[in-house]
Amino acid sequence: MRKLLQYLFRKPILWLSDRFASRPDKERIYNALSKLYNSILEEPGEKGPVISLDDYGGRFIIFSDQHKGNRNGADDFVTAEASYLAALEYYYQNNFCFIGLGDCEELWENLFWQVKKAYKATFELEGRFLSQNAFIKIFGNHDLYWANDPLASFELENIYGQKVKVYEGAILTTEVNGTPLQILCTHGHQGDANSDGNWFTKFFIARIWAPLQSFLRINPNEPSNDSYKKTIHNEIMYEWSATQKNMILITGHTHQPVFESLTHLERLHRQMRFAEEHKDESLIAKINDEVKTYQKRFDTLDEDYTAIKPTYYNTGCCCFSDGDITGIEIENGFIRLIKWQHKTVNPSRVVLEEKLLSDLVK
Asked: Is the pLDDT of residue 210 over 80?
């Protein structure tokens, strides 16, 4: 019966998820991001810390949107847990600072003690970063509880065994060839009235969406559902970041990986235009081979992506239905979009995109 219902309702549920998940307002988002950015710079430590990239040897890993639940049918993190644990072990052993960029716990659908009980090993591994003072926890809309409930600090201490300060954002600072560069990291739900903690959305998720998703076991967080053009929310985030000086923005929230302000397909489209202009037949053949499985989507891209500034990045998420996770890595002067995939016995790290920070400043 469940398989029949999955077949019947899969497309309508994915459509509803896309239709009602987010209704961003440009003016609200601009105001919210500017307010947060200025607040962190003017009063470091209040809404977020200001951290030098030289700290932690310049090594940072940024993951968001784990949505850790209670291991029921609505828990999107279950299939990605192995990849996440392998990734955290790697970054801990290599002395990275770990930034949890929001929606790390799914607290619209679950109570904190349910999540803690379900993912004891995961919290223990995250806690190892905390014990090294290399853990920065930022809240999102699905774990807004950590920022506004009077008992949240005690419950976080109960999970990790020590006090944890939760922020709205963080700014990483560095200087590249004499030019200052600031990296604003925040979840990205700011200014989005439909997901910024309003009561109706919480009620719908907890009382209707979660039970339905649990029964049907349909996960809308699949790369193929939104991999070709940026969501409206990501577009607005990019547009705001492009107006700032000597700054790049890193968010999560949309579950859609973005690097240098472009999705992977958009970057391929830009490379194709370059290859055609320079008559690079080998590059044209390589791109055609990669896009053949989604040729129709590729053909719908008609914008001139060469004019896009490389100011916006999105981590993607840690709850894709195939067990993969994506994140943003900063190391040795590079910024990277990475994926940890679980196609073999041991999950493996794959670099999807990378760029020198010095090239971004240029």
From this structure: no
- Give the integer Cα–Cα distance in Å for 147 and 277: 51
Which of 93-102, 161-170, 185-194, 238-247 is predicted least confidently?
185-194
Angle between helices 264-277 and 281-291 (to 10 degrees): 150
Higher pLDDT, 319 or 232: 319
pLDDT digits (tens, 9 = 90+) for 102-142: 999 998 878 888 999 999 999 999 999 999 999 999 999 88
Give the CA diameter of the chain. 64
Whether 253 contacts 189, CB under 8 Å: yes
Q: 138: buried, middle or exposed (CB in 10 Å: 19+, 13-18, 0-12)?
A: buried
Query: Can you give the pLDDT at residue 286?
Result: 87
Strands 60-63 and 50-52: unpaired
Mean pLDDT of the chain: 85
The region, left, alpha or beta by phi > 0 then psi within -120 to 50, assigned to residue 323 is left
Q: Where are the beta strands (DSSP E) in 271-347?
A: 312-314, 325-331, 334-341
Burial of 64 (0-12, 13-18, 19+ CB in 10 A): buried
| Residue 139 identity (one-letter amino acid) | F
DSSP secondary structure string for all residues of 10-54? HHHHHHHHHHHS----HHHHHHHHHHHHHHHHHSTTTS--EEETT
d(CA 303, CA 310): 16
pTM exceeds 0.70, yes or no:
yes
Q: Which residues contact 77 (CB under 8 A, 6 or more apart)?
A: 66, 67, 68, 69, 84, 106, 119, 318, 319
Alpha-carbon gap, residue 87 to 82, rounded angstroms: 9
Q: Quick one: the chain helix, strand, coil %, rounded to 5?
A: 45, 20, 35
At position 49, the amino acid (one-letter code) is: P
> 296: buried, middle or exposed (CB in 10 Å: 19+, 13-18, 0-12)?
exposed
What is the pLDDT, as a whole number, of residue 180?
93
Inter-axis angle of helices 232-242 and 26-42, nearest 10: 50
